[in-house]
Amino acid sequence: MSSAVTFVDALASGRAESRLAVRAGAVLFVTALTAAAAQISVPVPFTAVPFTFQPMVVLLGGLALGSTLGMTSQVLYLFAGIVGLPVFAASATLPPGALRLLGPTGGYLMAYPFAAFLTGYLSQRGFDRRYATAVVAMAAGLALVYGSGATWLAMSTGMGVAAAFAAGVAPFIVADLLKLLAAAGILPAFWKLLGRAG
């Protein structure tokens, strides 16, 4: 597929200053939404990894913003957490601030910019225009988050890869796939509203 206009670029028509403002506002909105999604955090028994809505925000953000802006939104999110802003999921056991990236869930967090980039890259190839391809793009990003998260979990805790998968991926697959299947329809629906569906 050839390079396609992202949803945020379709909204950012007009003068250069207006386009810059829309893009910057969209990046900050996705950053704030990621932080808000982290606050909906549910501890899961037998694992240090909580259930949150962050992955879907990360993937939808990438789909709407494209590769560079999607990645930027997540780099800003991580920077906010590193400097001590309360943007990470509340936890009595996970370390705060910058140390969260070195803790057992650090691999998931560090994957967010790359997952947003990958999903955004596919979006720029038109994957956000139809439901089936939006599912593929978001599933690719989710697989990257899972792979990075489980690998880091195994390394940081000393558990084997199979145990890390059982603790850090398996409990979340069904819920994440259901969220993904629901969320994947959002961008194609918006494109239809603009009259520019694929």
Helicity level:
55-70%
Task: Report strand %.
Answer: under 5%
CATH class: Mainly Alpha
Given helix and strand content, the structural type is mainly alpha
Domain tally: 1
How many β-strand runs? 0
Cα gyration radius (Å): 17 Å
CATH topology: Arp2/3 complex 21 kDa subunit ARPC3
- Low-pLDDT segments, ≥5 res: none
Termini separation: 12 Å
Task: Please tally the helical runs, counting DSSP H or I stretches of 4 or more residues.
Answer: 9
Write down the overall geometry.
globular
How many strands, what sense, and barrel or not for the largest sheet?
Answer: none
Mean model confidence by pLDDT: 91
SSE pattern: HHHHHHHHH
The CATH architecture can be named as Orthogonal Bundle
Topology diagram in text:
Layout: H1 7-11, H2 16-38, H3 54-65, H4 67-82, H5 106-123, H6 131-157, H7 161-168, H8 173-183, H9 186-194
Helix pairs in contact: 2-3, 2-4, 3-4, 3-5, 3-6, 4-5, 5-6, 6-7, 6-8
Please describe what this structure looks like.
With 198 residues, this protein is mainly α. It has nine helices and no strands. It has a single domain, classed as Arp2/3 complex 21 kDa subunit ARPC3. Helix 3 crosses helix 6, helix 4 runs antiparallel to helix 5 and helix 5 (106-123) runs antiparallel to helix 6 (131-157).
